[in-house]
Amino acid sequence: LSLWNRHPLAGYYRGLAVHESEVEAQKNYEIGIKYFNSLQYSRAIYHFKQAIDYLAHSRGEDSAAKKLIQTCERYIGYSQRKLKAMELVP
Known about the structure:
By secondary structure, this protein is mostly helical. Helix content is 78%, strand content 0%.
């Protein structure tokens, strides 16, 4: 890609890498939801952050990726508030 980004194979492999990162982001999101629902908020935060990192390439381009990033950020906020509440009330 850095030498000749218009080459057909470069475009193919870029598309493949983007697709694989989106699949991994979706997996991490689903794992994060499972941890969130089972009250394991620290692990949920980790997986939501991983999902956001996997989608770093598509900020602003894809509305579905942007929506998933916003959802993960919202769940991170929920999880952090839950962790804070658990510290206050054992």
